[in-house]
Model the fold of this input.
Amino acid sequence: MSFSKGLHNRALKVDDYLKSYLNNHKNEFEEKLHEAMTYSLLSGGKRIRPILLMEVGSLFGASEEELKDYACAIEMIHTYSLIHDDLPAMDDDDLRRGNPTNHIVYGEAMAILAGDGLLNYAFELMSEKAIDFGMNHVKAMHEISKASGHQGMIGGQVADILSEDAHGDASVLRYIQEKKTSALLTCALTAGGYIASCSEEIISDLRTLGLKVGLAFQIKDDILDIESDEDTLGKPIGSDEKNSKLTYPSLYGLEAAKLKVESLTSEAHQIIDGFNGDVTFLKSLVDYLCHRDK
Amino acid sequence: MSFSKGLHNRALKVDDYLKSYLNNHKNEFEEKLHEAMTYSLLSGGKRIRPILLMEVGSLFGASEEELKDYACAIEMIHTYSLIHDDLPAMDDDDLRRGNPTNHIVYGEAMAILAGDGLLNYAFELMSEKAIDFGMNHVKAMHEISKASGHQGMIGGQVADILSEDAHGDASVLRYIQEKKTSALLTCALTAGGYIASCSEEIISDLRTLGLKVGLAFQIKDDILDIESDEDTLGKPIGSDEKNSKLTYPSLYGLEAAKLKVESLTSEAHQIIDGFNGDVTFLKSLVDYLCHRDK
Done:
């Protein structure tokens, strides 16, 4: 099977999982909340984080049943962060993946609560499954909570906001990129590893891998914001420059950014080559993440 | 020791626990985020939920060490919900406990992230401690996640917002009160019970107790919004009427509301009388919650 077919099938499978949640409304209020939550959850994301978690978890021997809810929980956390990021008080974006953002459709109050609801539901789902599956899952949940929290993704968002219009330096940029993007990608790998009972040595390799892929992914994102177009990307381009965002290209230039993506991709491949088992899809996925056009 | 002295000492102890978190900043961004998170966390709450969790947990034999982080996690969840509730897009409140609300001090973007940060940190803390203490804690965490989530507190907030200016009925009022207030109070009791390895029969009694105390607490809140004054309450009174909120007094009248508080208090006492051990403080606490003047 070609890589793109394999990727597509995996994304469809994640979509099916995601559709299976939040169907049980007790009244019109829950129905409305669930509608706002699923609107963003099912609005065509690439499902990179859940696919990464499931790929690594199954590479090291975990079953789909053990992995799927944690894969979806990470996607819920990713989605809530986008809903809150898009709010008028934050990035004030009207479009996301080619569709109106959550607050444009449901209003600000509901968008805030839909985001809160998705973050909370991720942990409701993970703690429920941890009761069934045991301590490996609790470790995976803790890993995810650190990555999404005050010293992870949320810390990165704060740094991103506070460094706007300021002349940030390389260490600030590194912090933002590690926290805002790499953290959640990395925990997809390490959580998959924990669920599959990996050794601390493998977990450490997965952490390094996540950091490299996450950095390459973010720099590629910044490059696309300069070189792509709105139709391909599904959102306005040039927003980083408009908001005076500190990015790798803004600090080091476009060519250096492209070279950095190449070297990070190559380092990521080396780490993956150290793993036993069929790593073909995982290597192609890393290539795709670093060389995608949207 | 008098009840009020006992309550004061317990609240001070919770404050000390709460001060022990979020001190480890790696840079100015984390420091700013932690400042916004702790501003609301330490702004003089009554600490009812953590005190309830610790009281019930220790009544049934759990140690302070096993209980304290979960007690604080519930207070973090309660605090995040207040920060988001106060936002301009939600209730648009400038004052909370006599102090400027989070977004007034730190701006809307930071208030959204500080709320997200507290919700996430609650689960980071609980999952970390569950690794140390085991499956009873995972059950307690799941109990808390359900109470704070889409079919708990967040569901109640959505119903509260959507029913404004509409002529809601008794079933809508019941849903809002059970979800918006009772859910989090109830899970303080049941989480304490799970941590103390209580039987499902006791957990069920704790759930019923929480529902009765939660309803009485919310109705008392609604009564205070009519009968108290801004100096005593630390926030403007009459806001329910201003916002056309559906409340027990608005639906059944003030006198019926007062009678309902009395009957719920009495039913709560009967449940507590069925527990072994020294329940003196717990009974007084229920009285206090239902008869407080702020």
